[in-house]
Amino acid sequence: MSYKIYEEEVRKLNKILFSEEDISLKEKYLIEIIKKFDLKQRLLFRICYNKIFPQNNLITDLSSKLSGQFSNLVMNLFMTRIDLECIEIKRILEGVNLNKNNILESITVNPFWLNQKIAKRFSELFNKELKNEIIKNNLFNDFTKNILINCLNTKRNDNDKKLDTDEIEEKVKLVLNTNPDELIKNNEIFINIFGIPSAKELILISRKFKEKKGEHFLTYLENKLKEEEFFAIKEVIYNICHPSENFAIKLKNCIKGVEINVENINRILVLRNEVDIQEIKKIYDKIYEKDFSDEIPNIFNDSYKELVLYLYNK
After folding, report:
1. Which of 4, 110, 112, 230 could serve as 225's disulfide partner, Cβ 3.0–4.6 Å?
2. What is the value of pTM for the model shown?
3. How far lies 21's CA from each of 15, 34, 35, 56, 62, in Å?
């Protein structure tokens, strides 16, 4: 796509943002842009906007000229995944965002290389070390902090790594012969069982455990651990082994309560849009026998609803 096309669209957007009084027309045009450009192109669009209007900033202008969740969703769509993760983590650590479990989700679902980029970018943006910020934060207990640090710093095996059955058997023996508290609180053992194995390896460990123990690995842990500890370890396992299913369940949880968790809807749709949104959609339909599109509450305004549906059905 030529620079001229970006320039034309940028100038048009700036004019609409600052000259058009009807906010619905601003929203309509932004939806057109989002449908026209993929993430890489939107990032180039943002660079072009900031270059042509150096006294302005696209994200700032979107924030000042739009409102509500539509504004938040659109701004997120013009940001890199790494920046979004860093901003979200910082808001959680500062207590601004109360969805503190999102930091556990971010770090456990991301591959090692992405976590390393997030840690580096976090330092660049905020002049603070992510690891140190987690350690000194009072929102998390020591157990959760250990999980976050271990998952942040551990390189997981690739899924295409050849399965070593003898190695799997050794890990299963370690699980069977280790007290559950030790299993999750001893850093060396935790990394050996939950940090290093690929999704395929961890699934096989769980399967072999069930064959020998007669119960599912998660059921065993649920009966042995405290509620908060079990939730954290379940999040780790699901994010490694079944991320799309986990996000489908979370998407349902966003809308099934009395209060709609719009922030998490935005987060899932943006972060997973070019990763596995179609798999999430397929699993959601299978689990709940309903399409998320048909369940979106009517309280969403027309533009926000249109954008949510586009991202979900893309």
Report:
1. 230
2. 0.91
3. 11, 21, 23, 19, 14
Q: Taking residues 193-208, report their average pLDDT.
A: 96
Burial 42-64 (b: 16+ CB within 10 A, else e): bbebbebbbeebeeeebbebbee
d(CA 73, CA 264): 11
Token pair in block for residue 141? 């207990």
Q: What is the spatial distance between Cα 282 and Cα 277, in angstroms, rounded to a whole number?
A: 9
pLDDT digit string (tens) for 142-183? 999 999 999 999 999 999 989 999 999 999 999 999 999 999
Q: Which of 17-21, 293-297, 306-310 has the lowest mean pLDDT?
A: 293-297
Report, as an integer, the average pLDDT of 74-92. Answer: 95
CB of 184 closer than 8 Å to CB of 229: yes
Q: What is the mean pLDDT of residues 185-194?
A: 94
CA distance 92 to 99: 7
Q: In Å, how far from its chain's centre is CA 93? A: 16
**Are 151 and 191 spatial neighbours (Cβ–Cβ below 8 Å)?**
no
pLDDT of residue 299: 62
- Rounded distance between C-alpha atoms, residue 74 and residue 56, angstroms: 17
Q: What are the Cα distances from residue 227, in Å, to 20, 84, 89, 223?
A: 52, 29, 23, 9
Extract the tokens encoding 21: 């009084």
